[in-house]
Specification:
With 628 residues, the protein is an alpha+beta fold. Helices cover 36% and strands 19% of the residues. It is built from 21 helices and 21 strands.
Length: 628
């Protein structure tokens, strides 16, 4: 018998009702969640999403500030800004960066050596920041890219102001140069909190005053807020904050004197620095040989840089502030101040200068530069004839500790304060220095060599000029500086280095003794500068120096013809004028040129004539003197 199933309508109705109410509940819950989320987005997070919405349609474009110009003391333009076109690429807008850069290089005929640099810069920079593919594009390259721009998303031609140095290599070691911001620059700027100010800037000061005064010359970046569509096209400008141009910089350099010094150094290795001893302002600053800084501005090629590095004359070295030379006899007037103040000598003390000097109890003989010696000497004649034996004896009796103490006060062994970062301290030797450097004790024979500016003692040319400026100012410490003022026209702010404690001596007349000895160098009957400075309408004082580059054996005589050119003596000359009221000090180093009185003094005379008499002709006569 088959059973017949009957439906339970009550249960089915109850089940259906439960399902309906559950569905209604779920739908209501979802609607509530949707409404709640809408409230959260539209009300609670209104400000946040409004900002994010604006950021999608509003773009901030930084504007690079014009770099401050550089002028000489008379307002002659030395560093300017010229317009140029560059090709830029935003990495995040390209699908294959390496391929894009390669294709752009081939299309525009660019140097393929720059590809690794571009890729490296893109890796170390933020992906949305543009990288420079090429600079100084010509009209043909701009036209070719414009036709093909559709092939290179994220690429564009931008117009910039680029640094240009109209005097090229005449001012290189003073001005320095600007060049492309590299990875190290970016890291340093980020660390110093300055990176946002360089968002639209491509170049930064690398050397010279361009680097030293970077903060003042660079200026303050501006920006513009623009409205863009979903493709990034600019629709309109909403706000514009103009950039603030960098401050103009006026140098103490006189371009006429600078060009004269540059001409005098042609074919030579060395340097000329001319400064006002009253305030330390640099009038001329030439290191030779030099190089054109404009190649670094446009982007130096690997071949160009390798050629500069391999050049045996080392043009990249600033011989005024980086070159370490034995100061030789130029420091004898300074040592005389030490001797007078320590009571080791007096203005009337007489010493017999023979052909050699011996430390008591030893057999070694230290020769005078004159084979037969100089006979009886007082301090005036000792400076005039540059008698080595007089200063050997003085150094022996005073000792290295006092020499180090006094010469350190004159600035040797320390930075001069010059406003370039490319500077070395030289070596002002001491017992501690030798023990640390050579792990040897100090010997009396070391002191004898230091007593004539030789041995371990090395100095930069700027230190030598500064020391003699201090001498002319009777101990007042001056700080040399290339920069003179910031500003425009009459609204200039002077650059004034901080004052330092002056050098005090027991009797102010001691300064006059050393200065009179230098006067005799140029005007006395035996001075090494007497031929070069003969007939001047002004009175100048000076001191020559001839520095050994290689040591000579005790019985060996110097013969330049038998030595390699790079082993020949360096020629130095330091001079100041007018004698009664010095307004200029000139220091010169000629590498491997021989006697300072014969070769460097005529150049000093030419520079003095240019400054004091306005003579800028090329007439230089060789001095017949051979003294130190």
């Amino acid at each position: 018998m088959t059973r017949i199933a009957f439906k339970n309508k009550a249960q089915e109705s109850a089940l259906f009702a439960r399902r309906v109410w559950f569905s209604v509940f779920v739908i209501a819950l979802m609607i509530s969640m949707l409404l709640g989320n809408l409230y959260y987005l539209q009300v609670e997070q209104y400000q946040n999403y409004q900002t994010r919405s604006n950021s999608n349609r509003i773009k901030v474009i930084p504007s690079a500030p014009p770099r401050g110009l550089i002028f000489d003391r008379n307002g002659v333009l030395l560093a300017e800004n010229q317009p140029e076109f560059s090709l830029e690429l935003i990495p995040e807008q390209t699908t294959n960066l390496k391929q894009t850069v390669q294709e752009l290089t081939d299309l525009l005929g660019l140097d393929p050596e720059n590809i690794p640099r571009i890729l490296s810069e893109a890796r170390h920079n933020r992906k949305f920041n543009p990288v420079t593919v090429a600079e100084q594009l010509n009209e043909e390259q701009v036209a070719i890219f414009s036709v093909n721009q559709y092939r290179f998303p994220g690429s564009s031609i931008e117009a910039y102001l680029k640094r240009h140095y109209p005097y090229a290599d005449v001012l290189t070691h003073a001005l320095g140069y600007v060049a492309r911001i590299n990875t190290k620059d970016l890291q340093r700027l980020d660390k110093d909190g300055k990176l946002p100010n360089y968002a639209a800037t491509h170049d930064i000061g690398k050397q010279g005053v361009e680097k030293y005064y970077e903060d003042q010359l660079h200026g303050q970046a501006g920006y513009q807020e623009v409205e863009v569509n979903n493709k990034g096209r600019v629709l309109r400008t909403l706000k514009f904050q103009p950039p603030q141009a960098g401050q103009d910089l006026y140098l103490g350099i006189d371009i006429k004197l600078q060009k004269r010094a540059y001409e005098l150094m042609q074919g030579r290795k060395g340097g000329i620095v001319m400064m006002d001893p009253r305030d330390g302002s640099i009038l001329a600053f030439v290191s030779a040989p030099s190089y054109d800084p404009n190649i670094f501005v446009r982007g130096v090629t690997g071949k160009e840089y390798a050629a500069l590095l391999k050049d045996p004359d080392r043009p990249l070295i600033n011989r005024i502030s980086q070159g370490g030379y034995a100061p030789a006899s130029t420091v004898k007037p300074l040592l005389a101040i030490m001797g007078l103040n320590e009571g080791a000598i007096t203005p009337y003390y007489r010493y017999f200068g023979g052909a050699t000097f011996q430390i008591p109890g030893t057999a070694r003989k230290f020769r005078d530069w004159r084979r037969g010696g100089h006979g009886w000497l007082d301090v005036y004649r000792a400076i005039e004839v540059s008698a080595d034996t007089y200063f050997y004896d003085l150094a022996y009796r005073v000792g290295i500790d006092k020499i180090n103490e006094y010469m350190t006060r004159f600035g040797f062994g320390n930075y001069s304060g010059l406003d370039v970062f490319e500077e070395s301290t030289g070596i002002m030797p001491s017992r501690e220095w030798k023990q640390k450097r050579h792990r040897q004790p100090w010997f009396q024979g070391d002191t004898i060599s230091v007593g004539i500016g030789q041995g371990y003692w090395t100095s930069t040319l700027i230190q030598l000029a500064r020391a003699h400026s201090i001498l002319t100012q009777h101990g007042r410490i001056i700080t040399p500086h290339i920069g003179m003022a910031f500003g425009n026209g009459d609204k200039q702010q002077r650059i004034i280095p901080a004052e330092q404690e002056p050098i005090q001596v027991k009797d102010d007349s001691y300064w006059g003794v050393a200065l009179e000895g230098m006067y005799l160098v140029n005007n006395g009957p035996e001075g090494s500068g007497r031929h070069a400075f003969a007939g001047t309408p002004y009175k100048a004082a000076g001191k020559s120096g001839t520095a050994q580059v290689v040591g000579m054996k005790e019985n060996q005589r110097y013969d330049a013809k038998k030595l390699k050119a790079e082993h020949r003596d360096n020629a130095l000359f330091v001079s100041f004028a007018p004698y009664d009221n010095p307004t200029v000090v000139c220091a010169i180093i000629l590498e491997n040129a021989g006697g300072g009185g014969k070769n460097a003094a005529p150049i000093a005379r030419a520079m003095m004539d240019a400054y004091l008499l306005g003579k800028y002709d090329d007439g230089i006569k060789d001095d017949e003197a051979t003294a130190h």
